[in-house]
Amino acid sequence: MLRRPAWQVLRQFVRHDSDAVGTLVLERSMNRVQLLGRVGQDPIMRQVEGKNPVTIFSLATNEMWRTGESEANQGGDISQKTTWHRISVFRPGLRDVTYQYVKKGARIFVEGKIDYGEYTDKNNVRRQATTIIADNVIFLSDSGMKEKV
Hints:
Helix content: 10-25%
Number of helices: 2
Order of helices and strands: HEEEEEEHEE
């Protein structure tokens, strides 16, 4: 078996710094999302012809902060902002369990990556969509979760 030298292997994962000849700069990137919130709707499963099925549901996360003169003294008003996220689950085992057991109101933790896409709606208008592609879903409460028989 032939082995390539380490510098040839590393060359796949690095770029050359244009300012300095012979200097390699490692480039890394990451697309990770972690969300903790409550499910806004019961999951639905969709399948487009020739493609794998996907389980889709919405997840609400809340951000709270105190406004007013003395934040340290617990004075002022409490403000809250709710952000809704579209979650898509493609992994076969996770997709089926999520579809079966996640219900509206359940508190869950989702790990995955963020995906930006475009689609054309029924009025032929191009729209943008942001979706979280879930790699992992952790059930934190049984609120609203009932086993289907």
